């Protein structure tokens, strides 16, 4: 069977991308990254891809979000990617994109969903006074941060945490959780039944 190829969509620094690059290189994930696509020209993630010898594409935003996504999808399909990973991609994807890649579109979010979805997962958990937070890797559906959950990792919120210290502790777990979820997908061990994702042993 041909190796799974992954498309990673990014907007910024790309530390999650780096964890996926490293896990593919070490063999932890039996897959390869076919392309990295950014909606921001200056995203450091594009440099990370370039350094790793991975095709890196900047696809400028358009008013018509679906047209923008069609340009991205053309690249993903050119590269024959069987999995699309949003990794710090700061846009909500449209129904078009979700249904095109249904069951093979993942996202990582820096909170324990369904708590604290949205753009400020770490800040909101801290402000709320949550005693634990963490990260969630989930399949993407049409809502915001609402698709079936694949993996979650928990971190304790400490009394002296700031947004930055909590975010850093969560990020460490993100860098384990995303490669783990992708490995399970690549090994064909994930089954989606309604809202629940089961993991075959
Ligand atoms: C991460 O915290 C991720 O969970 C969120 O955006 C951040 C991206 O960080 N969706 P990076 O670009 O992967 O370093």
Describe the structure.
The protein has helices at residues 15-26, 44-51, 65-78, 95-100, 121-128, 163-186, and strands at residues 4-10, 31-38, 56-58, 83-86, 105-109, 132-139, 149-156, 190-193, 196-199. By secondary structure, the protein is α/β, with parallel strands linked by helices. A 7-stranded mixed sheet has the order 3-2-1-4-5-6-7, sandwiched between helices. Helix 1 packs parallel to helix 6. The longest helix is centred in the C-terminal third of the chain and has 24 residues, at 163-186. The structure holds 5-O-phosphono-beta-D-ribofuranosylamine. 5-O-phosphono-beta-D-ribofuranosylamine binds next to helix 1, strand 5 and helix 6.
How many distinct beta strands?
A: 9
Q: Could you say what the CATH topology is called?
A: Rossmann fold
Tell me the number of structural domains.
1
Instruction: Report the mean per-residue pLDDT as an integer.
Output: 97
Give the key terms.
binds 5-O-phosphono-beta-D-ribofuranosylamine; 6 helices; alpha/beta; 7-stranded mixed β-sheet; Rossmann fold; 201 residues; two-stranded antiparallel ribbon; 9 strands
Quick structural overview:
This protein has 201 residues and is α/β, with parallel strands linked by helices.
List the helices and strands and how they pair.
Elements: E1 4-10, H1 15-26, E2 31-38, H2 44-51, E3 56-58, H3 65-78, E4 83-86, H4 95-100, E5 105-109, H5 121-128, E6 132-139, E7 149-156, H6 163-186, E8 190-193, E9 196-199
Parallel strand pairs: 1-2, 1-4, 2-3, 4-5
Antiparallel strand pairs: 5-6, 6-7, 8-9
Helix pairs in contact: 1-6
The structure holds 5-O-phosphono-beta-D-ribofuranosylamine (GRF).
